[in-house]
Amino acid sequence: MAETKLAAEKRDTFGKGAARAVRRANRIPAVLYGHGEAPLHITLPGHETLLALRHSNALLDVTVDGESHLSIPKDVQRDAIKGFIEHVDLLIVRRGEKVTVDVPLHLEGEAGPETVVQQELTTLSLEVEATHIPDAVTVSVEGLEAGSHVAASQVSLPEGAALAGDPEQLVVVVTAAATAAQAEAELEAAEAEAGIVKEEHTEVEGENENA
Asked: Of 43, 68, 93, at which residue does a domain stop?
C-alpha cells in the first residue's frame, strides 16, 4: 500500500469547543502514539485526511515540526448523522515490523445453480508487515455447491501475511435456494408467529344472482 504524506500541526487545546474550532478550520483532531513514545496531539488537513482514510488500514507518513512519523489508523470517530470525521487515533509503526489489522474480505465468482451465498465475515484479522498491508483479501466462491463452506484457514492469503484470528471461523456458507413452496411455508409460519390471521373469502350462495 502506498504511503500518504500528511502535514500535521501540534495542538495544545482540548475539549469539544476546541475540537469544533479545529474542524471549522478544515482540520481534524488526532493523536499519535505507540512504541513507548508520549502521545502527540495534532491536527491533520481535513480534505487530504478524508481522502486517505477512504482506504482501510491506510499507511500515513505524518510530518510534525519536520519530523516524520509512519502510522496507521487505529480508530476513526465519525459523526453519527453527518458522517464527518471527528477524531483519529494513529498508531506509530516501524518499517519491517508486523502489526495485526482487520482486512476487508471480497467475494468473487458465481456459486453453483440454485444456491445462496452467505458471507459470514466482512473482514479477516491478519498479521502483516506494517508497510505491506493488503487493500483486501479475495475469496472465490466459483462453482461451490449447496452445503459448501469456506473457513478462515482455507482463505488464500497474500505473501507474508498470516492469519491472526480463529482458523475455524466460517467466512462463507453456501446453502440451497428456497423453493416457492418453502418460501410460502416460511411466510405462513412467520405470519402465524406474529399473530396475523388471513381472512378467508367464501362466496355466499346466490349472492351473485339477480334479485
From this structure: 93
What is the DSSP secondary-structure string of 152-208?
GGGSPPPTT-EE-S-TT-EEEEEEEPPPHHHHHHHHHHHHHHTT--PPPP-PPTTTT
Record the pTM.
Answer: 0.73
Residues in the chain, overall count: 211
102/181 Cα distance (integer angstroms): 41
CATH code, domain with 70: 2.40.240.10
The pLDDT, as a whole number, for residue 204 is 52
Q: Exposed/middle/buried for 79, CB within 10 Å: 0-12, 13-18, 19+?
A: exposed
| 112 in the same domain as 45 | no
**Helix and strand element counts for the chain (H, E):** 3, 13
pLDDT in tens, 14-62: 788 888 888 889 999 999 999 888 899 999 999 999 999 988 899 999 9
In a domain, 200, yes or no: no
- Looking at the structure, do residues 113 and 89 belong to the same domain, yes or no? no
Going by pLDDT thresholds of 50, 70 and 90, the confidence category of residue 76 is very high
The boundaries of the domain holding residue 180 are: 100-193
Q: What is the mean pLDDT of residues 149-165?
A: 94
